[in-house]
Amino acid sequence: MSGPDPVADVLQFGSVASPDALAAELDADGYLTDDGLATAVFLALRLGRPLLLEGEAGVGKTEIAYALARRANAPLIRLQCYEGIDASQALYDWDHARQLLHLRAREASGAESDPEALEAGLYDERYLRRRPLLEAITTHGVPPVLLIDELDRADEEFEALLLEVLSNWTISIPELGTVRATVRPVVILTSNRTRELHDALKRRCLYHWIDHPDASRELEIVLRRAPAVRREVAEGIAALVAHLRSMPLLKTPGIAETIEWARAIEELGGQLDASAARRTLGAVLKHRDDLGAVGSAMPSLMAAIGR
After folding, report:
1. Does the residue 1 lie in any domain?
2. Which residue has the higher pLDDT, 16 or 236?
């Protein structure tokens, strides 16, 4: 079964001529990307393919979907995955309370005595709850950005269900029939790789691994997201976080933690020294053992960045 024309959908979404042009569009929205990620997103848009982004938590996988939606003025539909998620949370569900009220009202009025007619009236689109996947394929106008976040948290059965939808762009509702996509959504899937996703799903997608940014790019991100932070503070924090990521920590800090740490130092007067860094470690580290290890190593870390 063929789906909607991906090229036409991209033109509706907002055509870009090259990965560099796309990177400039995202840059204008405040999302700094590198050549690899810009190319992967560009090809996903041009080829009409889902894009699977993997990487550690906090590297900006989710934010790329928000940036695309904002820049194209497109709806953002998010499906947050979790253990035990099933079709009723992802595809559709029926509003059973309203169905029951409808049934009681018809019975009380005596307007309908035919059981088949009563049942047909229950399964009307008025009582259909559209979950993210059904909402994404029935949106009219500008194609939405469908963010399927942290797919690795879901189980294998849900992954198979998702693969079927992404392959055919259709959803079967037994009571109403088959719903086909009017426009193809721009699909971003993310995974923190807590488990390996199936090859069948990966084959359906373009793939990109997002690393933590180097210190220079992270500095620019901090300055963009926290303009009140002085450059010398942002430089020191970016350098410190780069060293932290080389340590055997239980939870490696992400970009959001870097920004939060820089803001915390600025709030305390903007003096980045060993004392201020220790006092604000809770902004960047979230495990007790990590706090102890980094706190003890702080003098050598400050020396390593020339502070």
Report:
1. no
2. 236
pLDDT at res. 104:
78
Q: Tokens 């709850």: give the residue.
A: 129
Integer Cα distance of 225 and 32 in angstroms = 11
* Residue in the block written with tokens 């920590």: 249
Q: What is the pLDDT of residue 1?
A: 39
> Containing domain of residue 112, as a range?
93-122
Domains: count for the chain = 3
Alpha helices in 172-254, H assignment, sequence order: 199-204, 215-225, 231-244
- Residues 37 and 113 reside in one and the same domain: no
Assign 251 to helix, strand or coil: coil
**Whole-prediction pTM value?**
0.86
Hey, CA dihedral for 40, 41, 42, 48, is it positive or negative?
positive
How does residue 19 score in pLDDT terms, banded at 50, 70 and 90? very high
Of the ranges 16-25, 80-89, 104-113, which one carries the lowest mean pLDDT score?
A: 104-113
First to last CA, the chain: 62
Q: Tell me the average pLDDT across 177-188.
A: 90
Among 209, 230, 265, residue at a domain's last position: 209
Q: Which of 183, 151, 146, 150 is nearest to 68 (CA)?
A: 146
126-171 pLDDT tens trace: 889 999 999 999 988 888 999 999 999 999 999 999 998 988 899 9
Mark whether 221 and 116 lie in a shared domain. no
The residue type at 51 = L
Dist. CA 173–CA 127, nearest whole Å: 13
Q: Which helix (H) or strand (E) holds 122?
A: helix 115-122
Is residue 14 scored above 80 in pLDDT? no
Among 209, 233, 266, which residue terminates a domain? 209
The percent helix, strand, coil of the chain (3-state, each to 5) is 55, 10, 35
